[in-house]
């Protein structure tokens, strides 16, 4: 379905505002953990399931996105996802205890997990290939800034209001988005009905087991047989999932597209970029508090310069990718990653807040030139009918690698080994830079 430029702008804007609001829910709760601990009288390890459980459920529903997009019109699907998130948020606000709160939180996770790959697929499909860099730069602005400003927004709200205000804000904004969506969202894709593959969905539960194991590594011992058993079962399930997708005539997820040139690199590079972004947004507030002695509020506000720079540069990097190509743009991104982590490594012993802020700004600037251009590079190597599968693969792997990055950073950090964290991610991004040189300059659509 052809859209006018004005209709496309409203369509994309409505998607992005909704996605921004739902994205904040991923990162905003870490600041509120002490408040939840006091309110429910529970330890931090239990409260952490608000984030861990959210991430696990979100990851396992991501592979369902291509099937849902092929079997349901996008407008009712999008409105339903907004509705599920809103109901989950209401459940959280009125929850009398923590288990009920978790039910609402998992409802939010289902909505976000399906929406993340879906909205990127739709935006890519309705945008001409020569303009995709620019529009995906805006998508990157939403994803990156939401991840960065989530702790800031929750920190400010908790200074003046109760924790329910965080979710109340989500609810108000999503109500506005829902009303906008009734007028601006359309269903541009044709329905291609297919049977739902329950067996593949069962096998995909291995993702939950794998992510659970990754998150438990930091407190595991070799004698923790249950966790090791979960890992073994999860690996078996994932192997069965991969085999089924590669042999089925109508797979739930087209994993065979990972053989397409540039798409494989797009997946790897966007994941490596996201690993640095999520690590810097989690580690730097700890650095400001533990090393520089700053309050939680000021440690959150210290992320503002980097978040603002990331937001501004995402649009610029997208325009640059359309103008000069993806390879040089991505190369600049990983170059900035290397400089940023090197700077943080070099100044970690100086205890200077301004140098630390500059270092984090350079790292997040690297993400602006790397993550969404790499995602678009991968999408441009696919035909339109494969883009939903590509977006789902990228989102799922990026989530797994982001979780892995958090665990790696936490294990290395220990009781304050920030220098070790900075060195580890410096080495990781040097390796990523080597992959950039493998990118083929020409990205013609291919059929697998």
UniProtKB/TrEMBL annotation:
Domain Major facilitator superfamily (MFS) profile: 11-444
Entry-linked Pfam families: MFS_1
Membrane topology per record: Multi-pass membrane protein
Cell location: Cell membrane
SUPFAM superfamilies on file: MFS general substrate transporter
Any single GO CC term annotated in Swiss-Prot or TrEMBL for this entry: plasma membrane
InterPro entries for this protein: MFS (IPR011701), MFS_dom (IPR020846), MFS_trans_sf (IPR036259)
Recorded GO MF terms: transmembrane transporter activity
Protein name listed in UniProt: Major facilitator superfamily (MFS) profile domain-containing protein
Superkingdom assignment: Bacteria
Keywords: Membrane, Transmembrane, Transmembrane helix, Transport
Membrane-spanning intervals of the chain: 42-64, 76-96, 135-157, 163-182, 194-213, 225-242, 263-288, 294-313, 325-347, 393-414, 420-439
């Amino acid at each position: 379905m052809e859209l006018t430029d004005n209709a496309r702008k409203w369509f994309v804007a409505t998607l992005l505002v909704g996605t921004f609001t739902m994205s904040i829910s991923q990162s905003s709760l870490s600041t509120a953990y002490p408040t939840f601990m006091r309110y429910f009288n529970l330890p931090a390890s239990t409260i952490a399931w608000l984030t861990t459980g959210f991430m696990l459920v979100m990851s396992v529903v991501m592979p369902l996105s291509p099937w849902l997009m092929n079997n349901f019109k996008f407008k009712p699907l999008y409105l339903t996802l907004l509705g599920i998130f809103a109901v989950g948020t209401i459940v959280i606000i009125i929850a009398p205890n923590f288990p009920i709160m978790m039910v609402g939180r998992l409802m939010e996770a289902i909505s976000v997990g399906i929406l993340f790959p879906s909205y990127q697929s739709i935006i890519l499909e309705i945008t001409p290939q020569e303009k995709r860099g620019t529009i995906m730069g805006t998508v990157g602005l939403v994803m990156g800034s939401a991840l960065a400003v989530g702790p800031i927004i929750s920190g400010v709200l908790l200074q003046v209001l109760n924790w329910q205000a965080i979710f109340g804000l989500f609810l108000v904004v999503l109500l506005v988005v829902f009303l906008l969506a009734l007028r601006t969202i359309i269903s541009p894709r044709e329905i291609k009905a297919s049977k739902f593959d329950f067996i593949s969905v069962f096998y995909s539960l291995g993702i939950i087991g794998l992510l659970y194991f990754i998150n438990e590594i930091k407190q595991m011992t070799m004698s923790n047989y249950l966790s090791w058993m979960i890992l073994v079962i999860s690996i078996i399930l994932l192997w069965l999932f991969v085999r089924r997708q590669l042999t089925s005539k109508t797979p739930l997820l087209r994993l065979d597209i990972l053989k397409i040139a540039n798409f494989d690199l797009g997946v790897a590079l966007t994941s490596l970029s996201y690993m640095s972004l999520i690590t810097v947004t989690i580690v730097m507030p700890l650095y400001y508090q533990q090393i520089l002695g700053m309050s939680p509020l000021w440690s959150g506000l210290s992320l503002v310069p980097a978040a603002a720079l990331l937001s501004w540069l995402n649009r610029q990097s997208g325009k640059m990718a359309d103008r000069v190509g993806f390879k040089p743009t991505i190369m600049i991104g990983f170059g900035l990653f290397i400089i940023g982590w090197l700077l943080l490594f070099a100044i970690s012993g100086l205890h200077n807040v301004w140098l630390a802020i500059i270092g984090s700004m350079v790292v997040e600037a690297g993400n602006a030139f790397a993550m969404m251009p790499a995602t678009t590079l991968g999408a441009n190597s696919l035909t339109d009918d494969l883009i939903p599968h590509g977006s789902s693969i990228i989102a799922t792997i990026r989530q797994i690698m982001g979780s892995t990055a958090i665990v790696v950073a936490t294990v290395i950090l220990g009781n304050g080994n920030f220098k070790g964290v900075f060195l580890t991610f410096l080495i990781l991004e040097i390796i990523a830079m080597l992959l950039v040189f493998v990118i083929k300059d020409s990205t013609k659509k291919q059929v697998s």
